[in-house]
Specification:
Radius of gyration: 13 Å
Largest sheet: none
Number of helices: 2
Helix content: over 70%
Number of strands: 0
Strand content: under 5%
Shape: elongated
Length: 54
């Protein structure tokens, strides 16, 4: 279970890096919003799956 949480957190951080890159390149705002929602979902799911919270 701990491995899944780690993977979700890493994917969420990867998405946050993508959001930063897209903002810097002035990509369409809808794409930035979609990617930031995905990042938030991955990070929240990863944090909730950590054994500390159970």
């Amino acid at each position: 279970m701990n491995g899944t949480a780690t993977v979700l957190i890493v994917v969420g951080l990867f998405f946050l890096g993508g959001v930063y890159s897209f903002v810097k390149q002035q990509m369409p705002r809808s794409l930035i919003v979609l990617l930031s929602i995905g990042a938030a979902m991955c990070l929240v799911a990863g944090i909730l799956r950590l054994e500390v919270w159970n």
